[in-house]
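Encode chain A's predicted structure.
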Amino acid sequence: MANFSAADVKKLREKTGAGMMDAKKALTEADGDIEAAVDALRAKGLATAQKKSSRTAAEGLVGVAVEGTKGTAVEVNSETDFVAKNDKFQEFVRKVTKVALAMGEDDVEALKTADYPDGGTVADKLTDNVATIGENQQIRRMKTVSVSSGSVVSYMHNAAAEGLGKIGVLVALESDLGADVLEPFGKQLAMHIASMFPQALDADGLDPEVIERERAIAKEKAAESGKPENVQDKMVDGAIKKFAKENALLSQMFVLDNKITVEEAVAKFAKENGGTAKLTDYVRFQLGEGIEKEESDFAAEVAAAVGG
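Encoded structure for chain A:
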């Protein structure tokens, strides 16, 4: 008996773009384990290189705030998109982001115990919001970046309000150039980050577990080629280098000039403006990234309620 449902097949197809029969076969072979099925499909060339975080469905808002040479991004989740449009919720996310910016440390639990501008703690206000709005809300994550000189530039893709939206980006540019010069270029870098979804600043920063997973997939693909073992080893090494280049920000090809990398674009910008500049850190928060939201069948729920 199969250890998966039609909903699992649908989820696997959404993650990979694989056909119905290929998805069913992969789930059968993986005994219903969706992640193992994703890897199996990718090894056979039947799935995209990585699952798209844009498919996640958790709601809420990402907030970004910058002051001087420091910036912070915070993600606050809610159950529905309707709440994300609520003025009270938006005000909460905006104020919490500013509280997080003042803290200067990436600690969600510490943020919850911090003083809220209107009195009480952030946790108190969060509890009050849940009771008033009638929907569960959680502060999920935060990250602060800073430079000793230069600029931290923020960007919000498809902003819901000032500093609020679903994809928030911060770019830390260490530089001797003025903020007025850095701001336009920082926005270009931020838009690149929003669209290209880098997983780390450079290859050394990539998650070792992710690299090992990619290596295992590359080995399986190489083995299926039937080529000599030494050739297979080179194929695997090449695949890992390609993955690192495409997923580390500095080595990605710059979206506004696909003949140079992001690192080269920064060097070119500095030279053209007669100063120094280095991209030292970044934040890219996409709402609901990595969260699996349970999907419900509304028609079935109504039918069950009526039948009950």
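Confidence is low (pLDDT under 50) at residues 48-57, 304-308.
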